[in-house]
Design a protein that fits this description.
Elements lengths: L5 E4 L3 H12 L4 E4 L3 H10 L3 E2 L8 E4 L3 H14 L4 E4 L5 H9 L7 E6 L20 E5 L6 H13 L3 E4 L2 H24 L6 H4 L4 H7 L6 H10 L1 H23 L6 H17 L13 E8 L4 H11 L6 E6 L5 E8 L4 H10 L3 E2 L2
Parallel strand pairs: 1-2, 1-4, 2-3, 4-5, 5-6, 7-8
Antiparallel strand pairs: 6-7, 9-11, 9-12, 10-11
Helix pairs in contact: 3-4, 6-10, 10-11
Length: 357
């Protein structure tokens, strides 16, 4: 009997977050996991009911580690003969290749990948709002039944995600650049801190925190991701290596002709690259103007700032918060549309706020 229920296999961060979001909207959700404790924790958090085989799901969402994904998808397709099955693995081509090797019909399967996550994993880190406004990529193939695409589209919409349709190869190429290589670079940089002096690290500001934040991610998970998408990652890292060698050479020989121009070109190319990163509603981050507010490190100050920005009729497009370890203040960077800068800055100054920039 088809109940319209969703079965989530895997009670980690993504599985629990999907369950929380669907359950919050009143949809019937069941959770299964090889780990009884992880499953129980996700159920206790409200991500769904414990799955004991008593229902025939309409949708199965596989949220297991990448090296297990294909096998679990194949099992779900075989066990639930009418269900649509999707997965949330970070690499799509590998899953399809393994399903083909297993001789599985992929008509009821559509690969998907929510571009959302946190540095901490597990059910304990699950959040019902994790996917809101985040891209959710669907990678159907010529074999995919349109019904499967419709069902997984429904899932992404229920979670508030921004739907993107791609193919497996294009997806893997894109995530290598925007997700997998950043993880490698962040980890390499953070590793330089291991043998550093404590007094040196004490000087760290927002730049180091920004570029090493994702280095706190789960090494075992990322080992699988990088291994599965190495074909797309390696060319980017080789180009990165070539440009880094050129930059090192220029810094070592500053008096040589062209060295300063080489360094300048690297920095300017970085500016151009940042301009391509979309912000809110696809607007380029560099199209906003910035007002930096100095805020005291005490309860209620950030909330008070937001209330007063709202009372000025100004909408915050983007936000960054930086806290100095050596001072009892923070810097709140408010990004707004250019026509709102004067209203915001003058209004906050009139209300007693200190403006740094």
């Amino acid at each position: 009997m088809n109940t319209g229920a969703t079965l989530i296999i895997g009670a980690g961060l993504l599985g629990t977050s999907i369950g929380l979001a669907l359950s919050k909207k009143g949809h019937p959700v069941f959770i299964d996991d090889n780990s009884a404790s992880a499953k129980a924790l996700a159920v206790d958090y409200g991500a769904g009911q414990s799955f004991t085989g008593q229902i025939e799901p309409e949708l199965v969402v596989v949220c297991v580690p990448p090296d297990q994904t294909a096998a679990v998808v194949a099992s779900a397709l075989s066990r639930f003969q009418s269900a649509v099955v999707t997965d949330v693995a970070s690499v799509k081509s590998k899953v399809l290749a393994e399903l083909s090797q297993l001789g599985v019909s992929k008509a009821r399967f559509v690969g998907s990948h929510p571009m959302a996550g946190r540095e901490r994993g597990g059910a304990i880190s699950g959040r019902s709002d994790l996917f809101i406004s985040r891209p959710w990529v669907l990678t159907p193939t010529d074999e995919t039944d349109p019904r499967a695409v419709s069902k997984v589209t429904w899932l992404a919409q229920q979670l508030g995600a921004a739907l993107v349709i791609s193919n497996p190869e294009n997806h893997d190429r894109a995530v290598a650049l925007v997700s997998h290589v950043p993880q490698v670079v962040s980890s390499l940089l953070a590793a330089r801190l291991i043998e550093s002096a404590d007094e040196d690290v004490a000087l760290a500001g927002g730049g180091l925190r920004d570029t090493t934040r994702i280095a706190a991610s789960d090494p075992e998970l990322w080992l699988q991701i990088l291994s599965q998408n190495s074909r797309e990652i390696v060319p980017i890292l080789k180009e990165f290596d070539r440009e880094l060698d050129s930059l090192i050479m220029a810094l070592e020989h500053l008096s040589s002709p062209g060295s300063l121009a080489n360094i300048s070109n690297v920095l300017r190319a970085g500016n151009l690259g940042v301009e391509k990163i979309p912000g809110k509603h696809g607007t380029k981050h560099t199209q906003y103007d910035r007002v930096v507010v100095i805020i005291e490190d005490k309860p209620g100050e950030l909330g008070r700032l937001f209330v007063e920005v709202g009372s000025l009729g100004v909408n915050i497009e983007e936000l960054q918060l930086e806290h100095s370890p050596s001072a009892q203040v923070g810097l709140v960077e408010l990004y707004v549309m250019p026509q709102s800068v004067s209203t915001l800055a003058e209004g906050l100054l009139a209300r007693g706020w200190r403006i740094a920039e």
